[in-house]
Design brief:
The protein is α+β, with helices and mostly antiparallel strands and 368 residues long. Helix content is 22%, strand content 30%. The strands form three sheets. Strands 5, 6, 7, 13, 14, 15, 16, 17 and 18 form a nine-stranded mixed β-sheet that branches. Strands 1, 2, 9, 10, 11, 12, 19 and 20 form an eight-stranded mixed β-sheet that branches. Strands 3-8-4 form a three-stranded antiparallel β-sheet, covered by helices on one side. It is globular. Bound molecules: flavin-adenine dinucleotide (FAD).
């Protein structure tokens, strides 16, 4: 039977980035139930980094992650961020971006009037009278980032095992006896990074679930009768009912911002959500829709209070939660993994995340 210090359950970005932080100093194995890592939420995101997304503590994780992405952590040879910008469309009342006061310096918003909007996004329908422009928003090279995290685990003598679903785990006097589809493993600490399945994994480990809810979200790739779209800003109505961003010269990704509660599953798009995406897109711009090139759905998983859950379980020793990342799990992963690694090692928080309070994420808030 193999013996490790830390067994990470789940090979999405949460598990992979934390593994990259811990391997080397500790004996780390990551297990993934699928035949490849990244098949679920991590492989289905819209792949962008946006300062204005989320509130308070989660936003601080995004801010702390930005310089780490810029530095190519954890050893990517290609740049991980590509500047795109976001246009938050507003109507006659000039609605505000939530928490705009926190957005200063490179993240500050600037006001665009209709003439400036027309120059940036030709063909916008007339109800949009202006916008807030967020220049620091960027595309994330998610596949390169995720692959770099997995490579960092292996480079530092950690192990990544696919086809290795956790089936059950039993707490012993000094750790865990774990049954997986790839054989038994003994571990001192379990990390639950199982995304939409994190409550299922907890129950398999005889740890109380915390009430995580996966929510389905749809993205549609449309071919449209307009060219030069690839580098346009991401366009949203303040994240109320849609966003779209350029993918190729005449193709775009559109999401209707659907949020449908579902059980953990291999999510697939529903026709009604695809139709809603197209309808909302056509009400925003006059670009003719020529074809649906691709469509997919993924799960964004939230705790009941919608804050992330990062930390040791308050009732069962040696069980660490890294779950409930919702719609921000990629853009926060560099800082969240640094914070989680310090908590697991029992060390003070490193300077890069020193302004972040782990109490904002503690699983203790769900204790009976
Ligand atoms: C449409 C969409 C758009 C998004 N856009 C963005 C964005 O632009 N920016 C951003 O930051 N975030 C975005 N997100 C959110 C982001 O994708 C997630 O927060 C993030 O991917 C969650 O990562 P994860 O590792 O927790 O989950 P996952 O990637 O789902 O990984 C969990 C893994 O655990 C495995 N697993 C489950 N049970 C077991 C078991 N018993 N044993 C072993 N393994 C198990 C699963 O197979 C899975 O691979 C988006 C999400 C969606 C759906």
């Amino acid at each position: 039977m193999s013996e490790v210090d830390v067994l990470i359950i789940g090979g999405g970005i949460a598990g992979a980035s934390l593994g990259a932080r811990l391997a080397g100093g500790m004996r780390v194995t990551l297990i993934e139930s699928e035949d490849m890592c990244g098949r679920h939420s991590t492989g289905r995101s819209a792949a962008f980094w946006e300062a204005s997304l989320g509130a308070g503590p989660a936003r601080r994780l995004s801010f702390a992650s930005k310089p780490m992405f810029d530095a190519g952590w954890p050893g990517s040879s290609t740049p991980l961020l590509r500047r795109r910008g976001t246009v938050h469309l507003t109507g006659p009342h000039g609605e505000r971006v939530e928490g705009a006061g926190e957005l200063t310096g490179e993240h500050a918003l600037t006001r665009l009037d209709r003439a400036a909007l027309d120059a940036m996004i030709p063909g916008l329908r007339e109800q949009w009278t202006g916008a807030w422009y967020e220049a620091s928003c960027a595309d994330i090279e998610v596949a390169a980032f995720h692959a770099a995290c997995l490579a960092a685990i292996r480079r530092q003598s950690g192990t990544v095992r696919t086809d290795a679903a956790l089936r059950a785990a039993h707490r012993t006097a000094d750790g865990w006896d774990v049954e997986t589809a790839a054989g038994p493993i003994r571990a001192s600490i379990l990390v639950n990074a199982a995304g939409a399945w994190a409550d299922d994994v907890a129950e398999r480990c005889e740890v109380p679930a915390i009430g995580l809810q996966p929510m389905r979200r749809t993205v549609v790739q449309l071919r449209v009768g307009r060219t030069g779209l690839r580098d346009l800003p991401l366009v949203t109505d303040l994240h109320n009912s849609f966003y779209f961003k350029g993918e190729g010269t005449n193709s775009i990704w559109v999401s209707p911002l659907d949020e449908t509660p579902v059980d953990p599953c291999d999510a697939a798009p529903e026709e009604i959500d695809v139709a809603t995406a197209i309808d909302r897109f056509q009400r925003a711009v006059d670009w003719p829709v020529e074809a649906v090139e691709r469509k997919w759905a993924g799960l964004r998983t939230f705790a009941p209070d919608r804050a992330m859950t990062l930390g040791f379980d308050s009732q069962v020793p040696g069980f660490f939660w890294c779950a409930g990342q919702g719609g921000m799990g990629i853009q926060t992963a560099p800082a969240a993994s640094l914070l989680c690694a310090a908590l697991i090692r029992g060390e003070p928080l490193p300077e890069e995340v020193a302004g972040i309070d782990p109490e904002d994420f503690t699983p203790r808030r769900f204790a009976q």
